Structures are given as C-alpha cells and as structure tokens.
Amino acid sequence: MEWYEALALLLGSIIGLMAIGMPVALAFLAANIVGAWVFMGGERGISALLNNGLGSLTSFALVPIPLFLLMGEIFFHTGLGARMFNAIDRLMGKLPGRLSYVTVLGGTGFSTLSGSSMGSTALLGSLMVPEMSARGYKKHMSIGPILGTGGLAIIIPPSALAVLLATLARIDVGALLIAGIIPGLILASFYIATIWVQTRIDPTAAPAYEVEHMPLGQKLLLLARDVIPMLSVMVIIVAMMVGGIVTPSEAAAFGALGVLILAVVFRCLTWEAIKKSVVGAMRVTLMAYLIVFGSATFSQLLAFSGASRGLINWATGFELAPIAMLCVMFAVLLLLGMFMEQISMMLLTVPIFFPLAQTLGFDLIWFGLIMLLALEISFTTPPFGLLLFVMKGVAPPETTMRDIYVSAFPFMGCSLLLVVLLVMYPQLALWLPGL
Amino acid sequence: MQALGRVYTGFLYLMAGIAGAMLLWLMVSVIVSVTMRNLGLQPFAWLFTSAEYALLYMTMLGAPWLVREKGHVHIELVTAALPGPLRRVVSRGVAALCVLVCLVLAWKGADLVATNLARNDYDVRAYYFPRWMLTISFPVCFGLMAVEFSRFVFGDDLMHSGEAGIHE
Amino acid sequence: QETLTAVHAFPETLIYTQSFFEFVEKVNAAGEGVVQIEVRGGPEAIGMFQQPDAVRDGIVDMVYTPGSFYAGALPEKDAMVTSNLTAVETRANGGTEMIDQIHQEKMGVKYLGWFDSGVCYNLWTRNAPEFDADGNLEVEGLKLRGNAVYNAFFTNYLGAQVIDLPTTEVYSALERGVVDATGWTQIGLIDLKWNEFLNYRIEPCFFSTDLGVIVNLDRWNGLSDEARTILQDVAIQHEKDSVEALRTKRDEDFAALEEGGMQVVELEGEARANYLEAARSTTWERMKGLMAEHPMGDGLYDELIAKFYDLSAE
Ligand code: NA
Ligand code: NA
C-alpha cells in the first residue's frame, strides 16, 4: 500500500467515526482495529493494540493530571476557590476581564514552572472555569487563556519536551531552554493584549460590575485571610519543585494535600465535598485516559504503516527556497499534530528536519524553538488535541466543542504571530543564549 | 432477572468505587514515597510501581461506569443535522458499533490473558509482576462496556441528544 | 527475494540505532536479490517495551532491542548484562549459541546476534564520591537514579536510595538536584548532556550492554538457506565490527569528558573486587531465582555464567 493510501485509510476512518458521533476513545479504538488488521497482520495486531495501550497508560508521566484535577475540584467543592476569587475580585477593583488576566499571569507562572501542559490545563481548568462562569464571564474568556498558558509550559524552561527535543536533535539543551525565555514572555504579553482587545470589542464578555470602595486595612485583611493562604499552596509546591524536593510529576500530589489541609483549617472539608471532588476528577481523567489508551496505537500505526514517513519525505522532497521549506516543515508538523502525540512526532520528524534545517543554513537552536511552537499549537488543534478534551471535561456542561475551538483560535493566532516574529527577528530567540 | 440486574449494577459501581480508590492511592503513594526519600529513607519501590499500575486499573475499571454516565466525549455533527427518527436509528447504530468494538477487545483481551498465563509473562519494573494480573482488566472493562453500550442500542435512553456540539 | 520488516527500540539518532542501521545496510548489500531488511521505524512505530512481543507474535519480523526489555520472558538475559566478555568471545565459546537456543525455546525467536557489546556501565556522580576506611564507596545520602536493570545491585548491595526515573526526566532531575548520581553506559552521557551536572566517573565499570537482534522463529525457519546464511554471517561480522567501532567511540567520549573536567575515581584492591562481585552476584541471584520458576528450570545456570563471565579477567 502506498503511503497516501495508508494515510487516507487511517485519517478517513478516525474522522468518519468521530463525525457520526462515536465517542472519541471508541473511534480511536475502532480505527486502530481496522489499522491493526490491515498493517499488523490481522487478529494478532489487536493484541498489539492492547499491549500498546497498557504500555502507554502505565506511565508515571500521567500521574499528575488526575491529581491536579483533584486539587482543582477540592478547591471548587469546598468553596475555597470561591473565597479566593471573591477576594481577588474585590481587591482588583473594576478592571474588565480581571480574572482572565489573573489566569494568564498565574497560569504563566505555574505552567512555566510545572512544565506539564496537560497538568496545568487540568488544574487551571478545574480551578478557574467553573468560578469564572459563575461570575458571568463568557466561556472564551476563561477557556482561551488557559489553553494558551498550557502551551507556554513547553516553551519557557524548565520543559521536559524541550529537553527531549534537544537530546534527539543533538543540540545544546541549555541554549534551547534559554532561547525560549524571551519568546515565552512575548507570547504571554500577546495573550494579555488579546484579552484586552476582547474586552474592548465585547464589553459584555467579562462582568464589569462596580466594586465598593474598601479601606486599605480591610484590603490587607482580605488579602491575608482569603488570598495568601491559597496562593501559598501554589508557591510551596513550586518551591518544592525548584528546590529539588519533588519532581514536577510528583508536585501535584502535594498540591492536592495542601488544599485538603487548607480546607480542614478553614473548616469547609465535608465528606460530600470529598466525594464530589473525587468523582469530578475521575470523570475527566477516565475520559481523557481512555483516549490516551486508544490513541497510543493510532500514532504508531501512522508511523508503522509508513504513512507519516511518506508524507514527510514527500513534503520535504521539493526544491524550495529556505523560507518556503520552513513553511512546509511547519505545515507538516501542524498536520501531524492533529493526529499524533508530541513525542512520536518528534521521534519521527527530528531525524529528517534537523539535517534539512542545517543544509538550509538555519540556526538549529532557533529552528528547535520554532518546532516547539508547532508542537505547542498542536496540543490545541482539533480533532486530536487532548487539551481540548480535558478542557471539555472541566468546563460547565452546556459548553460545546465549538465554544472551545473558538476560544482557542485567538491564542493559537498569538503563537503563529510569534513564529512570524521569530522568522523576522531571530535575535529574539538567539540573543539570550548568545550572551 | 431483576436480581441479576441488581447484582450487575452493584458490580459496575463496585468497579467504579475501586477506580476512585485508585485515584486517591495515586496521591497517597506519591506523598509517602517523597516523604520517605526526603527523610533519607529508602522509599519502597512498589509505591512507584503501584501508582503506574493504578492508572491502568483506574481507567479500565471506571470506564464502563462512565459509559452509563454518558461521560465519554463524542461530537454531535451528523446526529444534530438529522431529523428525529433517522437520528434515533443512527444513534442506535453508533452504539451498536461501540458494542462491536468492545466485544472484539474483550475477546482479544481474554485471549491475551490466556497467552500471558501460558507464556508465564511478567511485567518488569521494580518487581516482576505477573502480566495477566494487568491484562485481566481488559476483558472486564470491555465486557462491561459492551453491556453498557448495548443499553443505548436497545434501551429507551439514547446516547446522542441531537444538539450540536460535543457532549459528555 | 525475501523482505524482513524491522523496528528498533531506541530513537534514530542514538548511536546504538546507527549501529543497527549499519547492519541493515550490510545485509541489504550482501543479500541483494535474496534477502532484504525494511526498517519500519523505532519507538514511534511500536512502543519500545512492546517490540519484543510484536516480534514474538509476528507483527514485525525483526527487532533490535536490549534483552532487558523482555526480561520477564527471558531472565537469562542477565547473563549478558553481567558479562565481562564481548560477543566475539561468546560467539567463539558457544555462549551465543546457548542464548539463541534459550530464545528459541522460551520465546519462539531466533537470537541473531549480540551487537554493540563490550560497552560497560559506570556510576557517575555530581559530588566527589566518599570512601570508608576500607576503601568502599559510601552511598549514604547519595540520591541515585535507578532502573530495573541495575536496581538489584544498587539497592541490595550498595543500599542506595534509588529513585526510579525515565531517561527523559533525568536531565531536569539532575538540574534540580532530585538526583545527584546515576548509572549509565560509558558512551552516551554527552549526547544526553548529563555531563553538564555530573563531575565524577567511578571506576571500575560493571555490567554490559545487552542489545541484540531477534527474529520471529517461524519467519526465520521459513527463509531460504541462502538467506539465513547471509543474515547469520553478516550478524557475526557486525558483532565484531561494532565492538571495535564502539571502543573507538568510548575513547573519544572519555577524552572529551575529561577535557570538560570529568574526574575519574577508582575503587582499589578488595573494595574494587567486592564492588564487582556484588554487581554480578546480586544480579545472578535474581536470574537464578527467575529461571527456577520456569518449566525449563535453572539447570543451565552454571554453564551459562561460565560462558559469559571470565573470572580470571578481573
Ligand atoms: Na516550563
Ligand atoms: Na493536536
């Protein structure tokens, strides 16, 4: 079978099955059964599918997501979250869209340090989206920034994905990490600008109610009582990570523990709240992890059948100007990113793209950063952007997938704009590591 | 028949309960292991390994319950555009397809358990753990899921609401 | 002409994978019109720990993988892990033949060749290692990264505080001080950039890499005699060539590391002998126990270690 036939078969079956309304996880499993049958020699291919799913699921890297979800759910169901956001609301006065800004700033800080975009989407999503919806924010004002900052996690150091990319591509790990700092901050500022524009275009997007004047003493009291204790849970787990007491994968467990302790201190921990939190965290985790189980083999079938390799070789086979070649590589990454998970994509593209980038005369650190941006965007591209499904799980029930796509687009636009800036001014990435 | 139904439902919720316990176990095992390490003690290696296995058991044992709760996301595109009667047919058809997928996986899962037992396979991490004790979760999970999806084929309740968007 | 499909356990850019590609090229040159190998990819095509099962089940015909990735099916791989010989010697003394027989019997796969042998493991640390009065390594307080291959040694003998981490997480764990020591092969530290944090290499080295090519047995038996001969001859040649190529690479790596400030610390005398003794005996113990559980039993145990370990070479 030719690579394009394999590609058409695999992508066609997954898109078709999802379109007729099959649950996403089942659609992946069904497409895999077809693919395994065709490419892995019939019945025995299905055993391989199950073995692969087992291997992908029993990985410690997946531990933080349910725990961050648990942390956010406990925050919400014990009322600690409401308490904190009430206080922040009153402290920040009447700035329109203030909680969106809080999301970007807090999210940048947190996702950056945690380095896990799935984990931070899970945490911020379960923490912010229900609260912001309850306060009358339109959905895109909470969902968009969270999806955006989730992606920032892999650009600003520390970032496990950046380390892996540098290792595979044999470029300087430190330089690639440092190269991400300035572009990452620029991206965060783009996000802030986007929110500002959104509240300007549509003043009803965020509630702009009057806030009564408060004397300074009362403000400080509010800050000390309702904000600092909650914030300190975050600060403590970040400090534990930076201090080498826990790995980023382990930090989430302490976050959940910290919130539990806080809830005890504030006397708002009930059995009802615990049960609701566990059920809430479980619903999202089970949904997302069955997709992980199903999609594990899908990426592999794309590789094993030769479909993705064929696409890459075909696309990079043209003799084009360097800048056009960069666009081709970027487009291939975006296309694959719709259907494959990030690590498989790197394993597949790095051995082809980096030598090519070298012959085209690109700086490899700069090219590595562009590639990370493509990977970041692919986290939130439909149909297979796991962050989108995690977000769907934590958002209020009436949220549609369309709402989520629409929320994500402006923030994906920011990333694309950053890529353009990097092409025009490579020094944005290369200045810091060159010092 | 009714008694059988009650036993079945009880089993389904028992599995979901175990899944919830696994989620809490993730938290406990990480906290204990990190605390031991930072006190200069040797953390039990099974703390780490059991957390990895807990991810599998949690997902497999909880997934059938989530079918009943309509918690597995699907996209309503075609089903939203169809007129009522046709939509019901398509919805039941999709559910039937899900039943088929689950039955195939339950059957091959049982096959895999038999192979693991015959080959005496181990999953090797910090310990040598009999592989069948992991793969046994496949026939249980997909078997129960097949039953749950078949409720949307034959029962009064439909999986699809007919409203555009994505649903859980 | 027959075509065998193949996958490899490690990413394409890794030196060991490159060595496998050389083997494939040699087969494809020698086997023109008779037998060809078609590489379908690495861990992105079939998960690294699922590859051994995939070759057993005939989903792919050939896999290049460490034996440790199928330790559950074949504990005898520890004979290679603990070996102080290279594939050249074990091919000559019948050790490889024996391992091949065990592979055929227990897994239904042909063990075609043990590549990239003769590379051993060192313990690498951030801080200057300390020794007790008898010259033994003090591991108290050492935050050591481990994995299933060497935990029997690290935990049972050294009593170290082992932290299990996947390879991809080690860089940031070193950076943040979650771990400050790790075992690793003599080659490859620079590629992983861990030398940015690690400053000491402890000698002697222990263990050996256990990378090999396994082929589905039905597929193997179904090949023509000519195809089998070509594959086997090229594999034996590559066993030899890869030892030499990697020795050169190791010397280059060591020189580059030492230029970057890596210091070498040697265990001496009795402490050294105890260290090596512990590395192999803890692992052999594990192997014997697991062999005994299998219907095949542990009858081959003594012969197996005799073929893979030369006590006089220490
Ligand atoms: Na980061
Ligand atoms: Na995607």
Automatic annotation (TrEMBL), chain A:
Membrane-spanning intervals of the chain: 6-39, 60-80, 146-169, 175-197, 227-246, 252-274, 286-305, 311-336, 343-360, 366-391, 403-425
Localization: Cell inner membrane
Topological type in the membrane: Multi-pass membrane protein
Keyword line: Cell inner membrane, Cell membrane, Membrane, Transmembrane, Transmembrane helix, Transport
Pfam family, one: DctM
Keyword Hydrolase: no
Domain TRAP C4-dicarboxylate transport system permease DctM subunit: 11-428
Domain of life of the source: Bacteria
Record has Thylakoid as a keyword: no
Function: Part of the tripartite ATP-independent periplasmic (TRAP) transport system.
Assembly and binders: The complex comprises the extracytoplasmic solute receptor protein and the two transmembrane proteins.
Family membership noted in the UniProt record: Belongs to the TRAP transporter large permease family.
Protein's name in the database: TRAP transporter large permease protein
TrEMBL record, chain B:
Domain Tripartite ATP-independent periplasmic transporters DctQ component, residue spans: 26-148
Transmembrane segments: 12-32, 44-68, 89-107, 127-147
Compartment list: Cell inner membrane
Record membrane topology: Multi-pass membrane protein
Pfam families: DctQ
Keywords: Cell inner membrane, Cell membrane, Membrane, Transmembrane, Transmembrane helix, Transport
PANTHER family: 2,3-DIKETO-L-GULONATE TRAP TRANSPORTER SMALL PERMEASE PROTEIN YIAM, TRAP TRANSPORTER SMALL PERMEASE PROTEIN
Primary role: Part of the tripartite ATP-independent periplasmic (TRAP) transport system.
Subunit comment: The complex comprises the extracytoplasmic solute receptor protein and the two transmembrane proteins.
Family, as annotated: Belongs to the TRAP transporter small permease family.
Name assigned to this protein: TRAP transporter small permease protein
